[in-house]
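> forwarded from #structure-qc
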């Protein structure tokens, strides 16, 4: 039951990253038809969110404990990577008071951290369960 709950948390956080980056914590919009660098950071976060959502969804429905653990390892690594997209992997706007710095970057970092912690907890629960069955 713990693994199911952790899988659902992973799925919700991954969907939040995907949908949130497009809507309520999106980066700056276009500037006279041109896109700032933060737009590409947003697109990268959305793409990573989509992949994380697919992995989390598969992880919920796969019955094999070893595969669940492997998928959670992938979710952990990818969510940690997502936290570094805004302003580390892809630069954001030069002005620190823009939405990409005040809303997008902190939201991506927080959601990615929650997702990474849920995946890490699932990895630990899976390892403990495997140890108990031996």
């Amino acid at each position: 039951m713990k693994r199911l709950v952790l899988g659902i948390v992973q799925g919700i956080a991954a969907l939040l990253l995907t949908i949130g980056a497009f809507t309520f914590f999106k980066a700056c919009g276009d500037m006279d038809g041109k896109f700032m660098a933060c737009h590409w950071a947003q697109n990268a976060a959305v793409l990573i969110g989509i992949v994380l959502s697919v992995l989390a969804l598969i992880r919920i429905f796969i019955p094999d404990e070893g595969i669940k653990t492997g998928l959670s390892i992938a979710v952990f690594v990818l969510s940690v990577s997502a936290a570094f997209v805004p302003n580390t992997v892809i630069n954001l706007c030069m002005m620190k008071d823009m939405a990409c710095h005040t809303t997008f970057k902190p939201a991506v970092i927080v959601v990615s951290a929650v997702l990474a912690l849920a995946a890490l907890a699932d990895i630990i629960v899976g390892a403990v369960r495997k140890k108990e069955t031996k």
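QC bot note: DSSP finds four helices and no strands in the chain. The mean pLDDT is 90.
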